[in-house]
Predict the structure.
Amino acid sequence: MTTGAMKVGFVSLLGRPNAGKSTLLNRIVGHKLAIVSDKPQTTRHRILGVRNYEAGQPQAGQVVFVDTPGVHKPTHRMNVRMVDAALQAMREVDLITLVVDASVTPGPGDEYLLRVLKDVQTPVILVLNKVDRIAKPALLPLMDRYHRARSFAEIVPVSAAEGTNVDVLERLFLEHLPEGAPLYPPDYVTDQPERLMVTEIVREQVLRMTHDELPFSTAVLIDRYEETGALAHIYCTILVERDSQKPIVVGRAGAMIKQIGTAARLELESYLQQRVYLDLHVKVRSEWRNDERMLDEIGLQPPDDGS
Ligand SMILES: Nc1nc2c(ncn2[C@@H]2O[C@H](COP(=O)(O)OP(=O)(O)OP(=O)(O)O)[C@@H](O)[C@H]2O)c(=O)[nH]1
Ligand SMILES: [Mg+2]
């Protein structure tokens, strides 16, 4: 039922790595707030994205989405913080969206998430994503499987990448949220600081252009950020964990770092709406993923209980 009153609330996007949570966030909010890659564990922070709806669109509302890191078995302190951020977000929202990649066979990771959600009272909407990748008949057994596993407020097949059925999902979010007054001003889109987005844009290109262990063991830090006239001078360090990883990021005669730099600069110019001079520098810092100070520096919140 749709009414004239405004629907307002928080909706978290929860799921395994690579399910398409960030793609869905970007699609709904209409801005690129979260970087996306074909590697798992792309998102490391909780990212807030606000979508406002006018009356008749389908109804007035403000939905505050919380994109979270994919839930996985932690291997380092970094991963403990990531998973904690995802599970913590689940406790602070009006509606949980469990995003599942419908194109891969369910495994222990999916079972784990169902166990996590077992005693959760907050309504859960199940999103079966990537339906563009599967044949329609394959969807029914999957829906049936989840239907038997627990009670979902809704089960919605979508393609976040292509946008299929996302409007239906958005309507259901509004339906399930309470009535209320807006939480943020109408022009507010995200809580993500600009500097963090800058490092994410650089990291996205590292993720795109490298493979194996590198995407997991890379972080990007801003060393210096200066503006002279219309030009932003941005100096970043790309951290890797081992000496052997540095030449991979640098490439032969610097070819790889140049390629990363060019692609990141173009993205940064479009994001910042100004010309950018980007200087990238690779540094080895062993075990940074277990270094609490380093994790603080890249903006990952420590777990709630301090463990
Ligand atoms: N074919 C297809 N690919 C998709 C769809 N949605 C997302 N993808 C792809 O799936 C990959 C992972 O997408 P992300 O949005 O980064 O996934 P995520 O759940 O945020 O991943 P983490 O941040 O690692 O937890 C990317 O290569 C996306 O382009 C979809 O609907 N169809
Ligand atoms: Mg993500």
Remarks:
- The first helix runs from residue 21 to 29.
- Residues 15, 17-23, 36-38, 40-43, 69-70, 129-130, 132-133, 159-161 surround guanosine-5'-triphosphate (ligand 1) (CB under 6 Å).
